[in-house]
Amino acid sequence: MNKFKKIVLDNGLRIVTVEDKNSTAVTVLVLAATGSKYETKETSGISHLLEHLLFKGTKRKPTPIDIAGPLDSVGGVYNAFTAEEYTGYFAKVGSEHFDLALDTISDIYLNSKLEKKEIEKEKGVVIEEINMYYDHPMSYVQNLWTKLLYGDQPAGWDIAGTKESVSSISREQMADYIKSQYVSKNTVVCIAGNMPKEQELVKKIKKHFSNIGDRNPKQKPEVIEMQRSPELLLHNRKTDQTHFCLGVRGYSLFDKKKHSQEILGLILGGMMSSRLFVRIREQLSLCYYIRANSNSDTDTGYLVVQTGVDNSRVEKAISEILKEFKKISSRAVPLKELKKAKDNLKGKMGLMLETSDAQASFYAIQELLENKILSPNEIYDRINRVGRSDVLRLAKDIFRPEKLNLALLGPYSDEKKLKKLLKI
Questions:
Q1: Are strands 187-193 and 14-19 parallel, antiparallel or unpaired?
Q2: How far apart are alpha carbons 274 and 328 in whole angstroms?
Q3: Coil vs helix vs strand at 199
Q4: Structural element, H or E, at residue 189
Q5: In angstroms, rounded to a whole number, what is the distance separating the alpha carbons of residues 154 and 161?
Q6: Any idea where the domains of the chain sit in the sequence?
Q7: Which uninterrupted H or E stretch holds 405?
Q8: CA dihedral (250, 256, 259, 263) positive or negative
Q9: Residue 239 burial (CB < 10 Å; 0-12/13-18/19+)?
């Protein structure tokens, strides 16, 4: 495994390096500890809109072509992403083009022009992105899921915002957001792959980030969670399939039970040989896709099963999934099944970490969200320690009727039947 190193500059900027001299590539990733959970109702979607706009031009590179062209000319891979708690910008290039990648990503992060003309144009692009996901039931039902769990607070809002909120965001609000959030104490610069020597590397990063602000960033509001009975959210729409998310609240990144939660999710629906895939798809032929996802943020967590079924078989699918919830919380999983899930989790992590861009995300996100970094081997050790009793105890804790949540999208309106299934 490649070794990582963390360096903290006097202004609080964190540098994480993951060196691999055997690689021909290098990734420059800049992460800001800000995302949709940091927004207000008025500015909902601003983190994501900014992510789009930073590629539109800087003082030195005034057009999108000036930014993209040099990276394209060396076959670079570059992009950005927005989540609830972080926003990232990266470029992956051949190691000989490290200076180009660092210069480009630092420049857009710190020196974007935010021209009003480009802002208005990009708002249209983001609105079309919102429309696209709305028209894609498999994606949109995930928005309904977080809305059901967290309601009208930042954790329950769509990362992209609404068409109304995006349309009304001003240039001044965006500039203020950058000044507040894109600051040294809120930023991690991660370099992964075949990179310059440490002294030279740090010198270059200091130079490129010399004008970063050093004020204290705005903190996100506390997520309010109150649930005493099963919850249901129906979105009636004419579709050929009904898509739904059925699951429960879980544990955050800082809870030791998060690894048990991941393993539980894998056993239920994280593999083609998982219980739900075998039962719901292979044996009953109720669906094409079914998956379980374990999610852990700094302050929230959940385990959810998602699938799409024929409109006439919704109740059958929900009933069968609930049976699997009950079964896995009634008796301990066999040792062989537990070992398979652990090996799957470790195996996927190992395969993922073969590339420099994946390594950059793996190390930088840990540092940003948890303020500490575990190596893959340290994480493997924690996974190995999860026992049958841990998984059973977790399942008994989360798979209770009063903790169930169901978000459903399709031409379905019989709330009474669903409430009966959920025992509301």
A1: parallel
A2: 12
A3: helix
A4: strand 187-193
A5: 10
A6: 4-208, 231-422
A7: strand 404-410
A8: negative
A9: middle
Long-range pairs, 362-368, Cβ under 8 A, ≥24: 363/4, 363/16, 363/18, 363/190, 363/192, 364/16, 364/29, 364/31, 364/88, 364/188, 364/190, 365/31, 365/86, 367/6, 367/14, 367/16, 367/188, 367/190, 368/31, 368/33, 368/86, 368/188
What Rg value do the Cα atoms of the chain yield, rounded?
23
Enter the DSSP assignment of 278. I
DSSP-derived 3-state class of residue 245: strand
Q: What is the pTM of this model?
A: 0.94
Q: Which CATH architecture has domain 231-422?
A: 2-Layer Sandwich (3.30)
Could you tell me which of 65, 57, 44 has the C-alpha nearest to residue 126?
44
Give the distance, in angstroms, between the CA of residue 274 and the centroid of all CA atoms in the same chain. Answer: 23
Distance CA 161, CA 307 (A): 25
Sign of the dihedral defined by the CA atoms of residues 145, 147, 151, 155, in that order: positive
Q: How far is CA 419 from CA 276, 416, 422, 423, in A?
A: 22, 5, 5, 6
Place of tokens 């993922």: 352
Instruction: Quickly name the fold that domain 4-208 has.
Output: Cytochrome Bc1 Complex; Chain A, domain 1 (3.30.830)
- Which two structure tokens, joined as six digits, stand for 106? 């630092």
Q: What is the DSSP letter of 22?
A: T
Q: Are 331 and 392 in contact (CB under 8 A)?
A: yes
| pLDDT tens, residue by residue, 324-334 | 999 999 999 99
Task: Indicate if 231-422 has the same CATH topology as 4-208.
Answer: yes
Which run of H or E residues covers position 268? helix 258-269
Render pLDDT for 24-62 as a digit per residue (tens, 0 to 9): 999 999 999 999 999 999 999 999 999 999 999 999 999
> Which has the closest alpha carbon to 306: 424, 160, 137, 131?
137
List pLDDT tens digits, range 296-345: 999 999 999 999 999 999 999 999 999 999 999 999 999 999 999 999 99
Average of per-residue pLDDT values in the chain: 97
The residues that bridge with 245 in the sheet, in sequence order, are 306, 407
18, 193 Cβ separation under 8 angstroms: yes
Of 153, 227, 242, nearest to 404 (Cα)?
Answer: 227
Helix (H, G, I), strand (E, B) or coil at 323: helix
